[in-house]
Amino acid sequence: MKTHFSAFAFSVMIISAAAFSDPVILADTKGTAKVEQVLSTTFDFVRTHRQGKGISVAWGVTSSNGVVKFAVKKTYEDPSDPYAYWEEAATTSCNGSKSYKVKDENVFPGYINYRVVAEMADGSTVESAVKTVHVVSH
Questions:
Q1: What tens digit of pLDDT does each residue of 69-78 get?
Q2: Model confidence over 22-33: pLDDT tens digits?
Q3: Which fold has domain 43-135?
Q4: CB count in 10 Å sphere of residue 121
């Protein structure tokens, strides 16, 4: 019984060591170097507030390099739901500025969730955090 347990423990140790060892990295035999341009932006801030009968959405970015346009999207549904419907509330082209502001005039009472989506030149997108505004009445 002791021999069976020892053999089992030894085989588990060998399998574990093989499974968690570092991968082998093979050298590039072609000797070609790839230079990839990285276009990235992050959001410094996103602010929403009630303004008149609409909602004002303002945001700032660390860099506008590679950004083609910004789309402000909103939903009245749960923003964490992957099936929530996000409609486009406003768009603005990127003009190289570090901050932007748009106004959404078409709002209804309820909790409205906003996010800003930066559309990059390479076709990718970067999304901001979600901000929620509670509209009680018109």
A1: 999 999 999 9
A2: 443 444 444 444
A3: Immunoglobulin-like (2.60.40)
A4: 12
